[in-house]
Amino acid sequence: MKPTRAFLSSALLGIALIANAVPLKTDLARSSVSAVFKQMNVPVESSFKRFDARIDYDAAHPEKASARVDIDTASFDMGQADYNKEIAKKEWFNSAQFPKASFVSSSIKPAGAGKLAVSGKLTIKGKTQDVSFPLSVKLDAGKQVFEGQLPIKRLAFNVGEGEWKDTSMVADEVVIKFRVAAGQ
To answer: What predicted TM-score, i.e. pTM, was given to this entire model?
Structure first.
């Protein structure tokens, strides 16, 4: 049986749609993930130096988007080697047993011009919680730029065990800030 033009057109359109579904490539030089918290009531912001973000996003169909971010917990940089070693220990991130923290989206919905409402599962130190947060998205220098903040409670993820459960030294509230620039 000989394929018809309509069949060939449909097949080519399907191939084109699949080609457009390729995840965006993260531009790590223009991307960042950090945590903001208070230590002895003084705001501190420190960055994760290694992470991987996989985003499948089409501005014409944001409801079909998906995202996954994996963060190397041992890459948390507080600016001093001793602090960095301490935060990787069992009481904090326990990076030896839990080398990655991750976020996996379950829903991304339009929330106005340049805004998205994101829901998903955040896993830190083996504990998983459902989270939701607003996200802004804009086009900048040919890349989609996704920016947002996710407030969490560190103790809900057992970050700060033993004597570090005392929130008078390090507050329970932490804001994860991120900027991911990605394109084709």
So the answer is: 0.85
